[in-house]
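Dear colleague,

Thank you for sharing your sequence with our group. We've completed the structure prediction you requested, and as agreed, I am returning the results in plain text so they can be pasted directly into your records. Please verify that the sequence below matches your submission; if there's any discrepancy, let me know and we will rerun it promptly.
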Amino acid sequence: MARRIAAGAAYGGGSIGLLGAAAVGVMLAEVQLAKRQVGGGVAPVPPSADGRYGVAFTGPAEPLRLGLLGDSTAAGQGVRRAGQTPGALLASGLAAVSERPVDLRNVALPGARSDDLERQVSLLLADPARTPDVCVIMIGANDVTHRMPATQSVRCLTTAVRRLRTAGAEVVVGTCPDLGTIEPVYQPLRWLARRVSRQLAAAQTIGTVEQGGRTVSLGDLLGPEFEANPRELFGPDNYHPSAEGYATAAMAVLPTLCAALGLWPESDRLDGARREDMLPVAKAASQAAKEAGTEVTGARAPWALLKHRRRRRLPASTEPHPHPHPEPGGSTRLDHRQAADADGDGTPRHAWVRRPSGRPRE
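Please find the predicted structure tokens below.
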């Protein structure tokens, strides 16, 4: 199905339905029930985290430029502090790994669907002198909930990736999250939401890899912990992630973000113990959609690399303060403080990640 969606997006095919008519009828009835409970709390307006991170690394090298695009997940809706948003977390982590300052610009819009990416890309590329070095796109949830045709969704995403790559930016896409993990969603809607989300995520991977980008499967926002602890990892509206949820997702995207810039050690050998493999793109996309945190990057066509990178603990985030030299648009600068022991538990700057087998791996 993902291969058909991606092909329809690439060659202008018509809408490809993800569900049968009977299933859609059941889904719509369940949606009405879920709407009464989702959003029972109020998600705060996402705080602006634009500015400079890692000022302690200021030196002769130019700051790296990081762009963030997408929907409310990319914007950080659900938290109240700028340092808790995924953009701030990724910028801080990238600064720590690269030992260079990072200028963040976030043009994501809460409620956006993939057809808004054209506007967002235009904003980022408006000034040729400030073209991002790398961009992270998180999109897809609103496409599912608003029933945007999957072929149109993937077509909009691949066009955005192609424009950014043509401009010289590396691109990492966090694929459609698993909407089946939203607590107020019940069966059979939960099963249908999970299926549709995974199909779209796999199709997004195929389209992105074909345009020279990389993807990271957000799935259930990384791991059984998200489904097992929804009260902790969901925000006050029971829909958007909390600060802990965003940190978990950012921790998985960071290694791929660094690898795209050549800052992450690469091995010529695939690690079989971590289930890394080289597969046809469609099969790699399908595998990634089933397991959150999986990276897919293109190899020699039609093959792709399936990777499970070791995740690093994110550096402690700080709050923005006025930039002594305001950037265009009134951005701010954030101080960066490295934290080798962010949790105060004596562990070094990497974290234990529980694999699906139940065995932790460093």
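Summary note from our side: Residues 27 and 189 are 5 Å apart (CA to CA).

Kind regards,
the structure core
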